[in-house]
Specification:
52% helix; 5 strands; Rossmann fold; 5-stranded parallel sheet
């Protein structure tokens, strides 16, 4: 099974994905880590083309892993999946692999996202140097609804443990 973590920057995708990967267990493929492994730091440009390439690599790795072990769970993290073509690419890949696709969309208020982004910028902890409130707002303005089955969790109103518990319950129905 492929689990695609969707949501705007600072919506809690990575935090939920990390704990979910541990609890399942699952393989976690992180777009920022893939980007860092593929490109020298001077060549990282956060362009749509570079994002698409990183996600394509992640889908190829997911396919390789799932063809070896169809019972495995692979979590894709780091892409907001706010554009329809991005979700369609993952749907096509899952269909080609012959594995279920589960989409978990993380949401939170702009105030919560702003606080998270400010903390990340202050600490320098997040690997994506372009991740700020302007990016969050720009992506929000461009976002297209994800149609079809998905779980939506509000990471701003639920504890991390509760978010992961709801995800586990949702994913159990797909196994």
């Amino acid at each position: 099974m492929i689990v695609a973590m969707a949501g705007l920057p600072a919506s809690g995708k990575s935090t939920v994905a990390r704990l979910l990967a541990t609890r399942l267990p699952a393989v976690l493929l992180d777009k920022d880590a893939v980007r860092g492994a593929l490109f020298p730091s001077a060549e990282i440009d956060y362009s749509t083309a570079q994002d698409d390439l990183c996600v394509d690599v992640m889908l190829q790795v997911a396919g390789h892993l799932l063809r070896k072990d169809a019972g495995r769970v692979v979590i894709l993290d780091g892409r907001p999946f706010v554009r329809r073509y991005q979700i369609e690419a993952v749907r096509r890949a899952a269909a080609e692999i012959g594995t279920p696709l589960c989409i978990i969309e993380c949401i939170c208020s702009d105030e919560v996202a702003c606080a998270r982004l400010s903390a990340d910028v202050a600490s320098g902890a997040h690997p994506a140097a372009n991740r700020d409130l302007a990016l969050h707002l720009r992506m929000k303005a461009q976002a297209e609804s994800i149609h079809g089955p998905k779980l939506v969790i509000d990471t701003g109103t639920m504890t991390l443990g509760a978010c992961v518990d709801v995800c586990l319950e949702y994913l159990a129905a797909w196994v």
